[in-house]
Amino acid sequence: MSRCLIPLFVLSLLAVSNAILQGTVDVKRLQGILEEGLKSNDISSFYYSVKGLTQLKAKLPDLCDIIKNYKFDEKNVEQVFYITNAAALSECQNSLMPNVLSAPTLVLDRQDSSLQEIYWAVYSLKAMGRGTVFDKEDALKNLIQLLKKDDTPANYGYLFALCEHIGCEAWTGTHAESALLAADETDGRALHFDGGLPVTSFLLTSILRTYKSLKKPSPLSAEQRHKFGAYLLSRRSVTSPRGAALLLDAALALADDQPTPIAIVFKDKKYITSESDTIEFSVTDIIGRPIPNLKPDEVVAQSGTRLADDVVVLSKQPLTQKPKEPTTFVLNLSKIKAQHGLYKIALSAGTKSANFNIAVLGEIQVSNIEIGVGDIDGTTSPKITTVSYPNKLSEKLHADHLQKVTLKFTARDKWNKPVVVQQAFVRIAAEGSEREAIYVAETDSSGAYRVDLHVSSMAPHLLVGGEYTVTVLLGDSALAAPLSWACADLALNFGRDRALGEPAAASARRGAQPEIAHTFRAAEARPARLLSDVFALACGAPLLLLLALWARLGLNLRLFPPLPLPALSAALFHLALGGSLALYGLLWLQLSMFDTLRYLLPLGALTFLAGHRLLRHLGDKAAKH
Questions:
Q1: Edge-to-edge, what's the strand order for the sheet holding 262-266?
Q2: Contact by Cβ (8 Å): 160, 182
Q3: Contact status, residue 284 vs residue 24, Cβ threshold 8 Å
Q4: Span 552-567, pLDDT tens digits
Q5: How many angstroms separate the CA atoms of 248 and 205, rounded?
Q6: Which CATH architecture group holds 366-510?
Q7: Domain ranges across the chain
Q8: In angstroms, what is the C-alpha Rg of the chain?
Q9: What is the pTM of this model?
């Protein structure tokens, strides 16, 4: 029961406008993934680790010996791309053999190479300082023809990246906005391209780099920046070096694109108490850096509303920037700390705003409890006894199945104001036992909590009479701690069938019961073996007699048809008839009834057809004579 009363003060954002991001990228965690990836035997993981750490401007160890001895497929242009670019980023190009560029050269010589393969080949050559001399216009025409065959967002990204190398950035500037319109929207909150994080990161970074080199304003609108940022945050739990590098690449490009999306998150706790009346917020870009050109006085709590009754408790209150921490802003809520409850704070940073839910945690107390025992039918008024918190009633209460226990109390805050809590229960339980009954306490017209406990209704839950403890349980999401008060001891008598002193019998009824064993009817006695044999011989006597007579009289073949076709019918008839008799014998010896029927059906059909033809032949012969 106590688990239900844990205060719910760790609240998340309830409603956030689409102008504020709900978090930042954990750069330190991603850096740890990338540093671990340097030890990987997978060439792609190694490359992305080097690339990601370079983006973070982290110090790289000496990788030249590792690159020199790295095992990769020299005929695979993708693996050549990874090793050559890792070597370029770590300044270890001299560690690779010249023949490493044979695969990229073959790709550029082929007519059927894809945009992806051309990208790998061109940037492999570039990494080794051997960039191919292009006729820019012809090269662009050929690349556009390849794009027309497969105009996926990924291929747009490869073409934009190739244009950075061959000098056709103007084409990128013309087509970037239409490419951005192809982004998919998720729940109206996030934008991404078909292909997930790899394609989204590749396209965003290539477009933003190109516009920066062209010195043109960013093609992204404020809404697009926010929604792309929301998508990147949804992928911040990546665990591979490739995912970490791609996420960092896109997040850094988006953070540098001005005006950058703003992220506001709770710095630590999301509640205040009577001892602590401030909440700290972190106001940063998507990677946790301070927002350029954001003045401290532009971070303002525009309004604060109590959720219980929509009363406005603060308006246009500026936050204070924490000394030596340019990203931390402090909201002072001392004016409302005496009013515990849940509040919605509308927070703005510059022109962006969002709503946050906070809790003002209070302390709760019950000044006293009125408790008494009376008859259910009201013939006698209950004798009311008052107990003050946190004491326990000195005398034990007694109640039987014809009576009820009445409790009445008022919950108050630290300033002795009556309050209504979310959870108010009365628990009747035996110490050291699992027997308990829990009842909801409801408020009456005066705001006091009241509960009537009918002893007879407790019987199905508690099973036996005996001594029980009455405990009041109060909890609320805006409480610093729940209240549990054992206020009285209660002796219950449920009547003759559940009298006091029966706990052992009830425990036996509730414990493990004897195992139920099923006894099947015994098989009837079989007759003696001699009787069974005599009966079997009696059943077979007619057949034995027939065989004996045939042996004595001999076979009469005078009427056997001489012609081939009637003779065949006669032979089949006798053979089928003999087979049927043999089948009956097998039924007695080993076959089941169903097996016998299955074999008998074709034999019976053959006997019928052959016998019918034989009888017709005999009838025709008799008619002629």
A1: 20-21, 262-266, 278-284, 328-332, 320-321
A2: no
A3: yes
A4: 877 666 667 766 777 7
A5: 10
A6: Distorted Sandwich (2.70)
A7: 7-12+263-360, 28-256, 366-510, 536-624
A8: 46
A9: 0.66
